[in-house]
Design goal:
Layout (H helix, E strand, L loop, with lengths): L9 H7 L8 H43 L4 H17 L3 H20 L1 E3 L18 H6 L3 E3 L7 H7 L20 E2 L12 H11 L4 H5 L4 E9 L5 E8 L3 H12 L7 E3 L2 E13 L5
Parallel strand pairs: 1-2, 3-7
Antiparallel strand pairs: 4-5, 4-7, 6-7
Length: 284
């Protein structure tokens, strides 16, 4: 076979299908194969060219994106946020603090000053104050002024403006004059205390003769009112043993000297007082 034979030519096709049924589909396909090969080659070349172009374009776009500055829209948003933060943060606070601090320093300087001596040529007998040297003035940390002023911390504090504080004491209500309390903040006190009270009752108690004859003894519980002036008010027996013993207990209670009255909310009041009076026969 010659090397210069074109296998895709029509002549070669006719040679291959000589003596065969050319109406067969293979003959038709073989005739159209050259055109198909050419189309496929063209498509492959176009695809390779497009891929190469896209690669070049992508590299160029990426390089330019890296070289260009930040997006202008984002930069504008950042600048707007910075401006809003600057508006929200007032600049008057530091200035106000500096003014207050300066005012305090000036006030301290006014409270603590050293006099600056004016230099003038006069006679010796006309000098009536001590003249400080420059070294003494430098060593003194007080401010310069027209007079010598040396106040301590207490004086500086007292020099400030103080707000007058008025303390109003709440007035407690006065109890009703006729009310008798069962218990109070300060109970009534007998002169000398409870022992002195029991001794007074024992010394002044007279055993009724009828009770002695009937051999009656025991303890009578008496309740009485110590009025707001300390005297004995109403007296009653809350535990009875014998009528004669009850009467004697009431008599002794009514003879009691004045108590120190009980007090409620700082006021003298009437208070019930309970006292047991014991009757005991000798030898029993």
């Amino acid at each position: 076979m010659a090397k210069d034979v074109d296998l895709s030519s029509k002549e070669w096709t006719d040679i291959v299908f000589e003596g065969k049924n050319k109406e067969y589909g293979a003959y038709v396909l073989r005739q159209g194969s050259p055109s198909r090969h050419n189309k496929a080659m063209i498509v492959i070349i176009l695809v390779i060219a497009i891929v190469a172009i896209l690669a070049v374009v992508v590299n160029t776009v990426i390089q330019k994106a890296e070289e260009r500055p930040e997006d202008e829209g984002e930069q504008v948003l950042v600048e707007m946020n910075m401006a809003e933060e600057a508006e929200e943060t007032p600049e008057e606070e530091p200035q106000k603090f500096e003014e207050q601090e300066l005012e305090q320093v000036l006030q301290d300087d006014l409270l603590n000053t050293q006099k600056v001596t004016e230099v003038a040529i006069v006679e010796d007998d006309q000098v009536d104050e001590e003249i400080k040297s420059q070294d003494e003035i430098k060593e003194d940390d007080r401010a310069l002024g027209q007079v010598n002023e040396d106040r301590g911390v207490d004086d500086i504090i007292n020099a400030q403006t103080h707000t007058e504080v008025v303390v109003v004491e709440e007035k407690k209500p006065e109890p009703a004059p006729d009310k008798v309390f069962d218990a109070v903040e300060e109970p009534p006190q007998f002169p000398g205390g409870e022992k002195a009270l029991l001794k007074y009752v024992a010394d002044n108690l007279r055993y009724p003769q009828l009770a002695i004859e009937n051999n009656i003894s025991g303890r009578v519980v008496v309740q009485f009112v110590v009025t707001k002036n300390g005297s004995i008010g109403e007296v009653k027996v809350v535990r009875s043993i014998d009528p004669d013993l009850d009467k004697e207990a009431i008599r002794v209670v009514k003879s009691l000297p004045k108590f120190q009255p009980g007090r409620q909310n700082g006021h003298a009041v009437n208070v019930w007082y309970t006292l047991p009076v014991r009757f005991q026969l000798s030898g029993s």
